[in-house]
What does this fold into?
Amino acid sequence: MNMNRQALLFYPILLFFLFLLFIGSLIYGAVSIPPECVIDILLGKETDRIAWQNIVLQSRLPQAVTAMLAGASLAVSGLLLQTLFRNPLAGPSILGISDGANLGVAVVMLYLGGSLRQLSDLPINGYPAIILAAFIGACAILGIILYFSSKIRNNVMLLIVGIMIGYLASSIISILNFHASTDKVHAYVMWGLGNFSGVSLAQLPFFISCLSIGLFLSVLLIKPLNALLLGEMYAANLGVRIKQARMFILLCTGILTAVTTAFCGPISFIGLAVPHIARLLLGSSNHKMLLPVTLLTGSCVALLCNMMMVVPGMNTILPLNAVTPLIGAPVIIYVIINRKNIQYFN
Amino acid sequence: MRQRTPVIETRQLGVGYSLKNGKKKIVHGCLDLSLYAGEVTCLLGLNGAGKSTLLRTLGGFQRALHGEINLLGKRFNAYSPADISLTIGVVLTEKTNAGGITVYELASLGRHPYTGFFGVLKQHDRDVIEQSLEAAGIAHKANNYVAELSDGERQKTMIAKTLAQECPIILLDEPTAFLDVTSRIETMVLLRKLAKEQQKTILLSTHDMDLAIQMGDRLWLLEKGRAIVSGTPEDLILSGEFGSFFNKEGILFDSSTGKLNTVAPVDPIGVEGDFIASYWVGNALIRNGWKPSPVSYGYININCLGKEQLIITLPGQKQLEVNSIDDLISVIEKVKHDK
It folds into this structure.
């Protein structure tokens, strides 16, 4: 009981950091705007600088919200996969779900790009097509993984199948790249670098509602996830309907990863590393605490990465996937080196 | 014969696997078995004898191929997975990832069938968990992480989990494997205590023949291609059935000593005297290839007066006194050699 009270302290602390980082993301950017002006703009006061107002409200605000939700989603789907596959190195990118989304996007950007321009006077322009393609790609891979998950009882084998499918998808993408024109490849590569600014203010409600549903569903999974710490047979003996729980977990992961990847590109390391950061912070793998803490930590880390993308004093923005490994990779290496002392997967 | 109602009863039960082409691989075809409340039943058998298959079938993890299982007077098929989780608790060999939760949290997973959608523990649940930890003898480690426990303590924690589950039946798959000697004995004593004090029905598979003979109320001897044999250890040994299960491929079960060996010693040496001393003298004789026997004229006879006073009488009535079994063995070896 003591431990639970101690763990409850994490919520206000994490929420405080989240608030700081959120405000920080609005204040700090490639264009320098004085903090008091940002606050004024946020409070709805009149400003004489319309450009600043546009930057804060049309660009930085949706970007911060996107980062917050995308980080939470990737982190939670990483946690779900690590628990389901009982593997500390499982994550949305490893199971090929990100690659599936990637493949869908590649097909649209590299080959259907031309035809999409002709449709530009219809409400469907390039972006929804990319989102749809990512969704279809992720769900296709998810379907394949689900199919194999009913055939292969062993989760490690299933993980390997996921990795193989990911390789297959990447290989198809390379072949597509080889045949596509240079400018399309460039656009695709830019998307592949990852970005939190891909969600416009108009798209934000759709983005928020999809991810909120996914996150809400994953909170409902806390009880079976804890039982799954003991393995599937123990969980079954405790009354968990294993097939159903597996499907549910994979479905949640699919929604969270597909939507995030479609809007923000394939983001590495957040899904893999944040659950470990949360476990190290919390010192527990009890999902009652771990899942909410992972969610909040994911938001914080993504906002931090979002701020790190802006190189101080220069007018350039680093690609997101150049920044996430800076935080993610050391964490994974730390966990692997100290795996004897860190007990969560023993 | 005592008349009791079995908790689990199987009739013509077939266990094994359904293969892809619709065929069935039957490991055991017609098992008629009974498990009783308040008893520890040990399932003995070599690797590949089908111990795990039988346990998995009785635990509801895989379907019976044919025949029927009656669980507390009701057909097994009438139980939903939720009913099973209230009736049968299991301790498996499956690797767990529970290192990062506490002993208390692990035991509380046993309350899963009772708690609501979010698994919130009520006061009653907490009372049951605390009693379970107490009964399993692991309450003093309640706030430790599972990763910090020894193998024996982990096994106790898993047993506490099944107790928190409040099931009348507990199935354990090789609970003493990988444990050191003291933990093995502690675990078996704990299981016996639970059977006697809480009237649990306990079935466990094991390779630990000595412990099974010592602690099991009933043994099930399982071998591929052979009908299962069940009974108290002593009945099975005296009837010779125990021996016939192990007497193969150069392995012999000596029913006079309860020990397995590759060759049965035949060369007799008479032993008499102090009970404990003569028991261990016998042990040393068997190891060196001699058969401890009743004292008889013409044998080398040993009179154990005490643990440090052993009188050897050679066939020529010559007597020697030695003070340790080490000396005893070297004397006998010398005599046999001179012959």
